[in-house]
């Protein structure tokens, strides 16, 4: 199950100038979306990058969603002698999932 944790917000390329990040292939603006991902009884918050055209209108915290083409890529960089690494998550699109009704047969 994936649930929106925080409303989408513009992804910035440069926080000092406010320059928006753009998709290298399509030129579409990118947004950041935080979602809660639950698996095996554990919940994690993932911060995803999604092209703005892949974000539906009215997306809000608490909505259940599905992710199209979710990709996880490791990254590493060095800044002022400090090495940092992590995993970047990206999806092509987010779709609001139909609510699951209690007692409904699948």
UniProtKB/TrEMBL annotation:
Ranges for the region named Disordered are 1-23
Protein name (database record): Regulatory protein
The organism of origin for this protein = Streptomyces rubellomurinus (strain ATCC 31215)
Classification from the root reads: Bacteria, Bacillati, Actinomycetota, Actinomycetes, Kitasatosporales
